[in-house]
Amino acid sequence: MLQYAKEHNIILLCFPSHCTHYLQPLDRSVFKSVKSAFYKSCQLWLKQHAGRLITRYQFGELLSDCWGKSATPENATSGFRATGIYPFNPDIIPDYAFSIADHVDANEMSRRWSATFAV
User: Fold this and answer.
1) pLDDT at residue number 101
2) Does the chain have fewer CB atoms within 10 Å around its N or its C terminus?
3) Which of 9, 7, 21 is nearest to 93 (CA)?
4) Please, what's the largest Cα pairwise distance for the chain?
5) Region 34-43 average pLDDT
6) Mean pLDDT over residues 84-108, rounded?
7) What range(s) does the DDE-1 domain occupy (predicted)?
8) Residue 113 vs residues 23, 76, 79, 80, 92: alpha-carbon distances, Å
9) What is the CA 29 to chain-centroid distance, rounded?
10) Contact present, 80 and 6 (Cβ < 8 Å)
11) What is the reported pTM?
């Protein structure tokens, strides 16, 4: 895989341990938005249909509506900006995010992260 990536000018990224929740672009934007919209849609549906449960039939319809509103190119793009992946911004992740153990220096982890993503 490494040879293939090198031959095809593919830059592989490796997320540092214990801080992937800061670095997952779609989790930070699209999926977070879908989850929030879906929760609101379910609450509204349950309020409008008192005493009924959401079945697999309603689930698909509710999720489809939320996905269409949340999974937009603009929303996905904002996830890459929010994580500092593009445009590249290594300062977007707080130093404490790199503190995985008392014996690990946060500045060293930050330097490693910056070196990992250097193009």
Assistant:
1) 53
2) C
3) 21
4) 60
5) 95
6) 74
7) 5-48
8) 11, 22, 18, 16, 12
9) 6
10) no
11) 0.61
More confident residue, 111 or 25: 25
The tokens describing 60, both together, are 């698909």
Q: Does residue 87 have a cis bond before it (omega within 30 degrees)? A: yes
- Close Cβ partners of 34 (under 8 Å, ≥ 6 residues apart): 63, 66, 67, 70, 71
Q: What is the mean pLDDT of residues 22-29?
A: 88
Residues present in the chain in total: 119
Q: How far is CA 64 from the centre of its chain?
A: 20
Give the type of residue at 32.
K
Q: CA angle, corner 13, sides to 28 and 83, nearest 5? A: 25
| Paired tokens of 71 | 């999974």
Look up tokens 């409008």; give the residue: 48
